[in-house]
Design brief:
InterPro entries: Phage_tube_2 (IPR044000)
Largest sheet: 18 strands, antiparallel
Number of strands: 20
Radius of gyration: 22 Å
Pfam families: Phage_tube_2 (PF18906)
Distance between the termini: 41 Å
């Protein structure tokens, strides 16, 4: 089999752990399957001779990680092809017909996805999958990075499916004229890199009679590199020392179904430090992305 011949299909489950009827092709990058994970249990038997002993694998599950290009559907009010992945990462999907699609975090009843990963004729299925998502904005193409855990299903022999990528528009590279309106604590600063991590804690939870992927917690964080400003204009050192919070916002792409607006209304900057980039001074800062009244620390708006 060829390493480059892979396929990933995914869809929201209507019933947890049950395959839905139709699966959508995911256009991925840097995909990595962890086909069989679990806990190795040593038997610890007493014998009159020395030597290694066999272990038994229990509490089996599977994992998968990959990136997708961050781009809207190209049509106002139509969810992007990666929407099911966001929903399985503890995000609500709110569609306003002919206007917008927005993803915001939730604390209860997250959805799950089923996935078929295939390399050559080997098909690996994950059921009840939930995971974490991060946003990566740096020179080039913007990405969503996903990491999922799912219930283990024995692999099958299957012909590679025909992939329909028509729901995946070409991405819009980051850069001047395409990426705009970056604000940090209400100030216009010049970013070279931004990452946002949902910080979802997702674990496989087996009992004596059941198994499930459990969405346990969320603590959003991030990091940013900006051109170092004069402290007379904006003093991030004092803001970090005083635990001052403020907003973060960035827009990318043209309106009409391609524009992506990332907003975090309450962000704390942490321990800024100087770094060098192409002989220019930058500030590198960790970010704590905080809720205001709950489930409002993050918004990804497509319009």
């Amino acid at each position: 089999m060829k390493w480059s011949q892979t396929s990933l299909l995914a869809a929201i489950e209507q019933t947890y752990g049950t395959l839905p009827g139709a699966m959508l092709a995911m256009l991925t990058k840097d995909i990595e399957l962890r086909p069989l994970e679990g806990e190795e249990v040593e038997r610890g038997l007493n014998t009159p001779y020395l030597g290694a002993e066999e272990s038994m694998l229990t509490n089996e599950y599977a994992g998968i990680s990959f990136k997708v290009e961050l781009v809207g559907s190209g049509t106002l009010g139509v969810a992007p092809a990666w929407g099911p992945l966001m929903r399985a990462c503890g995000m609500a999907e709110v569609i306003v017909v002919d206007t917008s699609v927005e993803y915001t975090p939730i604390s209860d009843a997250p959805e799950s996805v089923a996935m078929h990963f295939q390399i050559g004729r080997n098909k690996h299925t994950l059921l009840g999958a939930q995971g974490n998502v991060s946003i990566e904005l740096e020179k080039g193409i913007p990405y969503l990075s996903f990491d999922f855990k799912g219930l283990y299903v024995a692999p099958e022999d299957n012909a590679l499916p025909t992939a329909d990528f028509s729901a995946w528009p070409k991405p819009i590279p980051l850069g001047a004229g395409r990426t705009t309106d970056f604000l940090l604590h209400g100030f216009e600063v010049v970013p070279s890199k931004l990452s946002i991590d949902a910080g979802n804690e997702v674990e496989f939870d087996p009992t004596l009679t059941t198994e499930k992927i459990e969405f346990l917690d969320r603590a959003m964080s991030g990091s940013v590199n900006i051109a170092a400003p004069n402290v007379a204009d904006i003093d991030f050192f004092t803001r970090a020392k005083d635990s001052t919070t403020g907003n973060l916002q960035i827009k990318h792409g043209p309106a009409g179904g391609h524009r992506v607006t990332l907003s975090c209304p309450k962000v704390q900057v942490k321990q800024p430090k100087y770094v060098e980039r192409s002989k220019k001074a930058e500030l590198e800062m960790a970010l704590a992305i905080l809720p205001q009244t709950g489930n409002d620390e993050f918004s990804l708006l497509l319009d």
